[in-house]
Sequence to fold (1416 residues):
Amino acid sequence: MSRFRVGILGATGAVGQKFIHLLHSHPWFEIAALGASERSAGKRYADAVNWIEPVRIPESIASMTVQACDPALMPDLDLVFSGLDAGVATEIEASYARAGIPVISNAKNYRMDPTVPLLVPEVNPTHTALIRRQSFDPSGKGFIVTNPNCVAVPLAMALRPLHDAYGVEAAVVTTLQSVSGAGYPGVASLDILGNVIPFIGGEEPKIAEEPRKLLSVLEDDGRLNWPEITIQATATRVPTIEGHLLTVVAKLTRQPASIEEVRELFRSFENPVARYDLPSAPKHPILLMEDDRHPQPRRHAYLENGMTVSVGRLRMSSVFDLAFVALGHNTVRGAAGVAILNAELLVAQGFLRR
Amino acid sequence: MSRFRVGILGATGAVGQKFIHLLHSHPWFEIAALGASERSAGKRYADAVNWIEPVRIPESIASMTVQACDPALMPDLDLVFSGLDAGVATEIEASYARAGIPVISNAKNYRMDPTVPLLVPEVNPTHTALIRRQSFDPSGKGFIVTNPNCVAVPLAMALRPLHDAYGVEAAVVTTLQSVSGAGYPGVASLDILGNVIPFIGGEEPKIAEEPRKLLSVLEDDGRLNWPEITIQATATRVPTIEGHLLTVVAKLTRQPASIEEVRELFRSFENPVARYDLPSAPKHPILLMEDDRHPQPRRHAYLENGMTVSVGRLRMSSVFDLAFVALGHNTVRGAAGVAILNAELLVAQGFLRR
Amino acid sequence: MSRFRVGILGATGAVGQKFIHLLHSHPWFEIAALGASERSAGKRYADAVNWIEPVRIPESIASMTVQACDPALMPDLDLVFSGLDAGVATEIEASYARAGIPVISNAKNYRMDPTVPLLVPEVNPTHTALIRRQSFDPSGKGFIVTNPNCVAVPLAMALRPLHDAYGVEAAVVTTLQSVSGAGYPGVASLDILGNVIPFIGGEEPKIAEEPRKLLSVLEDDGRLNWPEITIQATATRVPTIEGHLLTVVAKLTRQPASIEEVRELFRSFENPVARYDLPSAPKHPILLMEDDRHPQPRRHAYLENGMTVSVGRLRMSSVFDLAFVALGHNTVRGAAGVAILNAELLVAQGFLRR
Amino acid sequence: MSRFRVGILGATGAVGQKFIHLLHSHPWFEIAALGASERSAGKRYADAVNWIEPVRIPESIASMTVQACDPALMPDLDLVFSGLDAGVATEIEASYARAGIPVISNAKNYRMDPTVPLLVPEVNPTHTALIRRQSFDPSGKGFIVTNPNCVAVPLAMALRPLHDAYGVEAAVVTTLQSVSGAGYPGVASLDILGNVIPFIGGEEPKIAEEPRKLLSVLEDDGRLNWPEITIQATATRVPTIEGHLLTVVAKLTRQPASIEEVRELFRSFENPVARYDLPSAPKHPILLMEDDRHPQPRRHAYLENGMTVSVGRLRMSSVFDLAFVALGHNTVRGAAGVAILNAELLVAQGFLRR
Fold:
């Protein structure tokens, strides 16, 4: 089959660059348009971008002309990926959806809209049904799907099997987040070299809220029923490049019979979308590590091209019930990679068609 | 008055170097002997040491001859500071105490001995009374006093006012510890540059246990009554040089009326040893910071020569009752500096005499 | 005597903060005014600044009101220190000089003006005579004195004794510069963590040119006679916080008799301004290190409060004549510290008076 | 064809791990034996190794049994790759060569032996003829081939076209070397975090000498004629993980007509072994970068799987003739990767047969 023609909005930003890196040889998607701010519009992509990915700009992309983010300028697109800043995403993403172009967005703007799926394929693949309740495009062709915050993704993935087996009531989370999570230029080197910043603006409320929407039950009436889970987060920035590490202590409704039972739960996690054989799906969405010193951002964030969430240090807790650490690649599994996986799921489920 | 003649055991190690740096111009103490392993004994100190402090070796120390750690070789000492490795501290420290030389130790070996004070002057200054129950030296002259683990110090200092005001029942703690905490050579650069290691061997049990001894009540019978506090710790290593940062969520017996009340509690913390005017005592043992981005290891670990514990991000918690972060300089406030402050307290209380 | 009343221009920037840190308890100078951009004018200093120094803002400074950089708003100043950006320094600094207020500037704008001293007290203290040729203020009271670029300072200091003894004809220099040299926010952490950037915009021409003006001979006609020294520089940025390290290979006119002779030359360097006993002058402006692994930025940049230039790895070169490395604290010895030392020299020489 | 059966000596070390990572799915070579010290012999590889590569241990390797480094214990090998420490390599490598097993070594021990090729395929592919002069194995089957030091590789590669076109007479080199170059545990994090060490023991003589052997002319009598090139090196360690950066200023016999001519020389570099189509050969052994800020270790060391040497900042020099920077991946292009490429060349040239 011919590939879907995709546009990338916010193509010169850090997330946009990651989209290009991950998509430029994708079997299902073909980059057909690059959208950025007016300042970049009209330039060759290679001239408009301050390329920071550790590979060279794909040659076919380097010579493309950047366009303004206007659906009228990008005819014949099957979908767009959005790496837009929150400051402009609300209007632009809606304009594409209204124009009949599905938007797979990494921006936060529509994440809490009750008709917009906040999607991680391994966590809540059925939430795509919410799309039918959207009103952007009466024809039903244009819609918006979002992925969660870069911490919420690995947190929800690690909580999914625990919640199903035991019920999660509360979690105390500390994050050690890498500098790539702040975009570019992002964190000043003078602030973070040999240092820790014990606060990331706007991050903790997302970590507290988004996993709850992800773990919601889709009711028969098409609405989400949110679980009662209380999450207390302290988000810190540490001098790592890629990969967000989380320490988690979780309170459960039912007690595990043993720590070995919980280990087996993670080891035997059944990926609900495994049957679709999606191109970007990792073989191990969750990987349990036995070495106490693992997982580590620099060594394990890139496992399976950055799509694996590693879980380690699993142990019973003296305060709550269970303690562990989790690691996810923030710009892949927590941003561009999960967005692409979401798009692949939408193809498999028939929401994306040509 | 003439100064106390002090020896430093483990003088070539990282803690020993910090002792020298902090003591070489101390108003009460005069470095009179340097003890190290047989390998170093007989050498000039400057030749025996791989000096890593960011100042030059004090000239008067550089030319001293290193001795083996044997009290018979070091007559006329009034006390020794021990930065010995745990592998050798048990025997050597006891030999000094038996020889009538008080030992102010940073080693872990005697911390849990019920007759040995685990001491932080601002937390439990009366625990020095335990010394009278020791049996190392029938004359009562020689004894051992220890300071806690480098995380337990700032944690106990931050919990002290909370426990007094509200009762602490439990705490979930994540530590972000600097590489200097592992000594020298310590952590391999290949392991920690741009990375986090989510485990530090032997650290978490100390964090769980030592604050409880520190917060114990000294009963009339001379024994310690330990409080029921459950601490769940996850200890991580991050690429910082000095300063351990802690994120803490605490469960309290009584609820604070408001977060402002807790703020005021920290701001008005009354230092129980302030009246002694000890030379190494900081003006602010606990410093409350209002900027969400503070405290930070590289910027605040050295406040008041590394003796201040900074507390920040104070807020009510949705899971337990109170959340905050704390920062302490691990090799000063958490090791050599607190040991020296302990010795100063012992002078003020009359336990150290010439 | 009462202290000189000084203003700090660019007081909220990185260099301005360093000025405040170094001056707030200075024996000769008293901070009487803080100048910054219109955006900050009228605010309390503590509210206007993003304070990045690793100490707390001095309390007396925190509550001062920031003013616009206009001499009319700052009456009764004896001099100003300028940490202004190059984009605004030309006009503002001239306005102060014209108003009769001497300007001790770290900005590059007037460094190459033939009537403006480019000054490092230990290198060219007599160049202050150029002041008399300035025409900013006909009364002679207002003038401008500049200090060199942060690399040119330690380079010129290390070349000074070599040039006097042997004649320096050429030098090949590679710099390893810390991130604080780029100001704040400066270098993005994503660009420099675990990385090297082999280029610093605008830096290499300054390194090639400024040491020549510093090593010029002041002729009887009051003009500078520049030496023929060719400097080839490659300036790189490395992930260090403070301290610029230089590797240098130098071609000499006359050959040293031995490397020991050169060692002795550095060891016996005679500070031409030693007799003034300036408050900020280090005991060792140049310190020769014998350990091959020294000097190191993190361990030695702060020697003598950051005013010492360390020289190490001194050896004969197979290509040119002499090879060595040098280290200077870029924001102290290479910026605010040398500017203050310059002002102290101007007091000692009688150029600054009340 | 069936694959060559290869052994890896020093399999648990840092270079050995890189050999395994690069070889475990190699089209021509199959890992058939793992050799290490007596301490590891008899253990499962996964139990013997402290695995530090940022991928998981290949499953087929994890369960292999480590053997002592004795050719009698490893029958049926076609060749061995040696990542042995210099302290043991002389004897062990000779024992394999004498037993008729070719040794492709990264150790320094035999690099200067006049009968042992010091080989980089793109630089001196004909030097393999030296093998015929070796006397380890009278049958001619066993021999030793070495690769250069990790700095000498990119330096010689960058000098090759310059030497051919203009004649290189001298070079002043400063290296900024990553911590992986020191093996594991290697550099202590306390020594290098936020720091530079201006010395690497034993490194500078290799950088001065090895490129000369690499650029030698193989005379008709089978001996190497070394060129007169004087190299002055200052080797520094910086806090990067992988990739050694070099700044180079070169004196040439003949002057380039223009810098554009030199640019074109690098762009049109003709790889002398391109015709063999070796599996590990990069498409661009030398890649010229135009952006002044490039190449950078973290962003460009891994280009073409770490086998590309990047050259940038090419410009005429005011002191000598030409200045540039070069970057090579030290553990791939400068160690395990070049060794494998050497073995591939030996297959293509018929020196390695089954």
Q: What stands out?
A: Chain B has a mean pLDDT of 97. The radius of gyration of chain B is 20 Å.
